User: Which sequence fits this backbone?
């Protein structure tokens, strides 16, 4: 009787457990997420918009954080938003929930102002000195226009037009802001196939650092400096000008073509200091030429150093009646101008060759820097770079833009070598600019 009693109790327990286990083994339907077509909305006063509910648990509710500003309701699985009448900008949120207690938010901006609209979101300029225009079609004037890389382009704007002239290769972001602080960004890219200019004894370039000296006197008393250029000479001529300050500090060729040797000469202080390379420079060969001055040194071979393709050259001292303690970039016999390709207003001192790039530094560059960066500068913000003239322009021009990333810009003006003593700007035709492939 006792065993029968135990069995009588076990049967219902087993039946209960069987039902329970069987129920657990059945898979229940997953609870759907609450998903809306979009969760950010911009409206004008009085405007109505519907947002589709793409999935959820039905029995939807919509609650506005500010019902007087923004009405919210549900109609046929859509959230209906209606903006109130306002003058200015306002923001509100709408909270959407379903039967499964899911919840999402819609962020709503209501503005009585025009939305800022620019005709391009991306802009590519294919050559240095090429021009382009952006147009603001909607927004609240006046507009403010800035760029995170000012060295890339010259920017001007008038009314709803933004005018750009490319100055250097690279990428940046143009930001347009209207009077109501609405902002639009335009991605900018400037492409600049590498080129060189054939000076061919017809053209020379000159720059005036005196404009900088008006606000920054340091350029008149540099304890260090580097004159650097990448060039290809096609003929010898005595005193032909590479670059520099005539009567102050200049790099030039020494001998005419009938002479046996053709060293590069460094002359300064009215020829009271004169040094020359122990070997001749080669014709029809690209070279990166750099004169490094360091006035903190006392020995002449440390104060004046010349590098070709990053290799220091042996210098022979021909005259040393005086030497520089500092360099004044505003002082020369050419009206204070720094020149490339001519000196003293004399046509016969013209450069016979091509130039692809020239740089002026207010520091003494190292041999390693000169060698590693002869083709292009890898430094984002090169210390001491005062001017950088890249001859990779894409149109007829009377100047080579300064594309250094510093706070001063000193363009290189192109003039006619044959017009002796003249510094008037002349247009150099695009035909004298040719493709350049850096050999270093």
Assistant:
């Amino acid at each position: 009787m006792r065993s029968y009693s135990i069995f009588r109790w076990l049967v219902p327990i087993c039946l209960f457990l069987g039902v329970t286990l069987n129920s657990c083994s059945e898979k229940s339907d997953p609870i759907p997420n609450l998903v809306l077509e979009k969760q950010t909305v911009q409206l004008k006063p009085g405007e109505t918009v519907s947002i589709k509910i793409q999935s959820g648990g039905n029995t939807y509710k919509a609650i506005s954080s500010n019902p007087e500003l923004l009405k919210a309701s549900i109609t046929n699985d859509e959230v209906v938003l209606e903006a109130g009448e306002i003058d200015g900008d306002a923001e509100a949120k709408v909270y959407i929930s379903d039967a499964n207690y899911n919840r999402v938010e819609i962020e709503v901006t209501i503005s009585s102002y025009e939305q800022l609209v620019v005709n391009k979101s991306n802009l590519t300029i294919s050559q240095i000195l090429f021009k382009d225009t952006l147009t603001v079609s909607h927004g609240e004037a006046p507009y403010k226009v800035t760029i995170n890389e000012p060295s890339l382009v010259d920017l001007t704007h008038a009314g709803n037009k933004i005018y750009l002239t490319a100055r250097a290769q690279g990428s940046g972001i143009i930001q347009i802001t209207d009077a109501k602080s609405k902002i639009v960004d335009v991605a900018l890219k400037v492409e600049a196939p590498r080129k060189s200019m054939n000076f061919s004894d017809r053209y020379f370039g000159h720059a005036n650092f005196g404009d900088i000296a008006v606000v920054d006197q340091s350029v008149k008393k540099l304890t260090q400096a580097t004159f650097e250029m990448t060039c290809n000479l096609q003929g010898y001529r005595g005193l032909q000008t590479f670059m520099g300050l005539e009567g102050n500090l200049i790099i030039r060729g020494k001998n005419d073509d009938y002479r046996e040797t053709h060293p590069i000469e460094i002359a300064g202080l009215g020829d009271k200091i004169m040094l020359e390379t122990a070997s001749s420079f080669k014709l029809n060969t690209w070279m990166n030429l750099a004169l490094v001055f360091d006035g903190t040194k006392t020995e002449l071979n440390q104060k004046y150093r010349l590098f070709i393709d990053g290799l220091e050259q042996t210098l022979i001292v021909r005259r040393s009646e005086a030497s520089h303690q500092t360099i004044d970039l505003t002082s020369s016999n050419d009206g204070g101008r720094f020149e490339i390709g001519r000196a003293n207003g004399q046509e016969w001192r013209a450069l016979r060759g091509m130039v692809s790039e020239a740089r002026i530094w207010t520091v003494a560059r190292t041999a390693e820097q000169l060698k590693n960066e002869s083709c292009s500068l890898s430094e984002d913000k090169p210390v001491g770079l005062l001017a950088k003239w890249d001859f990779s322009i894409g149109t007829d021009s009377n100047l080579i833009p300064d594309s250094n990333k510093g706070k001063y810009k000193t363009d290189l003006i192109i003039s006619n070598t044959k017009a002796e003593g003249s510094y008037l700007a002349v247009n150099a035709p695009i035909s004298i600019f040719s493709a350049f492939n850096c050999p270093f």
